[in-house]
Design brief:
7-stranded parallel β-sheet, globular, two-stranded antiparallel sheet, homodimer, alpha/beta, about 50% helix
Chain lengths: ~350, ~350
C-alpha cells in the first residue's frame, strides 16, 4: 500500500492512487486538546515564531487523525511585519497602521524574507526531519489579493469596505500594493519550497468578495505570478479561492495543479465549472463536523461519490475546521475517507 | 413623465419605462442624519413598533434621495416574538431561547399575525396615506429559510453552525421548523398586501450559505410557497438570495416577478444565469458608496450599461447600504440612475 506521501503528491499531479488522500485545512488548531495544551503556555504569534513548538503542533494532527499531509503551522499574515507593519491577534489579526494611501504603499518593504521570518524556514526544516517521509509537508501563504485586503483593512471584516474603497476609487494604488504583496509572497513561498515544503497552498480567502471582473483585474494576475514561481521551483500548487463560484471560469486559468472547492458547490459540478481538467481539493462543509459521527460519515461518503469522475481528488473540508469541532467527528471524517474504495 | 410609482411597478412587470427606477435596500437607516436624529429618542425595536415614527423614517429617503419606492421600516425578525420567542438588538438581533430541538419547534406558534404585530399594518396604512401615490410602498419579510436560520442560531453568525447542524443531523426537525416559518411568513406578508403594500420583497440573506442541493431542499420550496401566496393577493414579488450564484438555476424557479442580484455577478451575466427572462434588481456593491461621487457615478453607469439587455431593471445596491456611507454618495447614486437614458 502507498504511503500518505505518495497518495497526496500523486493526487496533486492528477493521478488516482489506491485511495483518496485526506487532510483538513487548519488541522493544527483549537479543536485539538493537544494544541490547546501548548497554547496554555504561549500566545498565537509566539507559537508561530517558535520553530520547535510550531513543528510540534504541525505534527499533532498526523498523530491524532492520521491525515495524509502535514501543513506548516503559521498564519497568512506572518509576512506583514517583514513588510514594515505591526501584527497582533486579538483574537483576529490586527495590522497597524493600515495601508490607506500611496505613501503608505511606498513605505512598505519587499523584504529579504528568509532573514525576516527565519522561524518559518526553521520550522519547515524541523518538520521534514521529524516527518521522515511519512507524509509530505505543505507550505502556504495568502494570495496577494487577500494579503493586501488585510493590510488595507487592518483587520478582518465582513465587507472589507476600506480595501474595496481603494479598489474602486484608487485602483492604481491598489495595483502598486498588489505588486508588493506579490513580490513578497513569491519570495516567501519559493523560500518555503527551498527549505523543504513539498507543495504550496495559496489561500485567496477574500478573492470571492468582488465581482468576477474585479477578481480578474485585482486577484487573478497576481495569484498567477506566485503559482508560476512555485511551479518553477518544482513544487505542486493548490489554489483556494473561497466563495468564488461566480468567478469559476477565471479561477480555472490560475495555473495551479489543484483547485480548492468550498462546500457551496458539489465536487462534480465544481469540476465542470472549472473545465473538468483539474484535481480538486475539498469540500465538506466544516459545519457537518459539528454534528455526530453518523452524520459525518454519511456526508463524507456523499462527497466522495461526487468526486468519482474527477481527474484527481484530495479530500478536505470546504473551509478551515471550526474550533468548536468535537475531535471524534474530525476522526470520523478522516477514517471515512481512508476506508473508502470508490 | 411617469411618476416613480409607475416606473417601479412597471419594472416589476418586466416593462421598460422612460427610465430605470431606483431605491436602496436599507434606505431608511443610519447613513441618514434625519434617521440618526429619530434614533436618539428611541431604540431600534421601539422605532419598529411605533407606527408614526416607523412611517416617518420610511419617508425620509423619499424626501432626501428622491428614490422611486418606499419600503416599510421594520426588521426581518419582527415576527419572532409573535412565534413565542424574545427578540432584542445588541446591536445585531438576539432571539431567545434559540430553537434547537423538536420540542422547541413544537412550542412555536404560527400566530394570528395581524393581532400580534398590529404596528406593522398600521405603519403601512399611514405610509400609503402619506405617500398619496407619489411612489409605491414595498413590504418585506425574511424568506422562511433565513428566518429559521436566525431562530435556531439565536443571533447573526458567520457560519450559522447551529442551524447547519440541524440541517445536516436532523433534517426532519428543520423541515418542521421551516413549515412553521413558512406559514407565519405567508400570513405576515399577505396581510401586508391587504394593508396596502404594493409589492413584497423576500430577503433570503442566508440562502446562499448552503450548497445548491441543500438550497433546493431547505429554502426554495418554502420561498416558493410564500411568493405564490403573495401573487394570489395580486402584488408583485422580488426575491433576493444573497451570495447564491452557485444556485442560480434553482433560484430562477422560485416564481418571483423580480430577482435580486448581488454585486458579485454583472447584471448581464446574472440574467443569463437566471435564464434571461427575469427583471432584475441590483446590484452596485454597497462599498462603492464609501468612495466619492465621481467613482459612484462611474460604477453606477457601468451597472446601468450591464443592464441594457435585461427584460426589466430596478436599480439598487447589491446588499443593504452601509451605515458609514456618506449621504452625498447615496444621492450621487440615485441621481446618476435618474439622469441615465440608456
Amino acid at each position: 500500500m502507498e504511503s500518505g506521501s505518495d497518495l497526496f503528491l500523486r493526487a496533486c499531479r492528477g493521478e488516482r492512487g489506491s485511495r483518496t488522500p485526506v487532510w483538513l485545512m487548519r488541522q493544527a488548531g483549537r479543536y485539538l486538546p493537544d494544541y490547546r495544551e501548548v497554547r496554555k503556555q504561549v500566545d498565537f504569534l509566539t507559537l508561530c515564531r517558535t520553530p520547535e513548538l510550531a513543528a510540534q503542533v504541525s505534527l499533532q494532527p498526523i498523530e491524532r487523525l492520521g491525515v495524509d499531509a502535514a501543513i506548516l503551522f503559521s498564519d497568512i499574515l506572518v509576512p506583514a511585519p517583514a513588510m514594515g507593519l505591526s501584527l497582533d491577534f486579538n483574537p483576529g489579526p490586527v495590522v497597524d497602521p493600515p495601508v490607506r494611501s500611496a505613501d503608505d504603499v511606498d513605505r512598505l518593504a519587499v523584504p529579504e524574507i528568509e532573514a525576516e521570518v527565519p522561524f518559518v524556514y526553521e520550522t519547515i526544516r524541523i518538520l521534514r526531519r521529524e516527518l521522515a517521509g511519512r507524509v509530505p509537508l505543505i507550505g502556504f501563504a495568502a494570495a496577494p489579493f487577500t494579503l493586501a485586503a488585510y493590510l488595507v483593512e487592518g483587520e478582518g471584516s465582513r465587507t472589507f469596505g476600506q480595501w474595496k474603497r481603494m479598489l474602486y476609487a484608487a485602483p492604481e494604488i491598489a495595483h502598486r500594493l498588489l505588486d508588493k504583496t506579490t513580490q513578497t509572497t513569491i519570495r516567501y513561498v519559493t523560500s518555503q519550497v527551498r527549505a523543504g515544503a513539498q507543495a504550496i497552498q495559496l489561500f485567496d480567502t477574500w478573492g470571492g468578495l468582488v465581482s468576477a471582473r474585479d477578481y480578474e483585474e485585482f486577484s487573478l494576475p497576481y495569484a498567477k505570478q506566485v503559482l508560476s514561481a512555485v511551479r518553477e521551483e518544482g513544487a505542486p500548487t493548490i489554489y483556494f479561492a473561497l466563495d468564488a463560484a461566480h468567478a469559476a471560469a477565471a479561477v480555472a486559468t490560475c495555473g495551479a495543479d489543484v483547485l480548492g472547492a468550498d462546500w457551496r458547490t458539489g465536487l462534480d459540478e465544481a469540476s465542470r465549472a472549472f473545465g473538468g481538467t483539474f484535481a480538486l481539493q475539498g469540500n465538506l462543509d466544516p459545519c457537518v463536523l459539528l454534528s455526530d459521527a453518523a452524520t459525518v460519515r454519511r456526508h463524507t461518503l456523499a462527497m466522495l461519490e461526487d468526486a468519482a469522475g474527477l481527474p484527481g481528488h484530495i479530500a478536505n473540508l470546504g473551509h478551515g475546521i471550526l474550533p468548536e469541532t468535537p475531535l471524534d467527528n474530525a476522526i470520523a471524517f478522516v477514517e471515512t475517507v481512508k476506508g473508502y474504495r470508490g
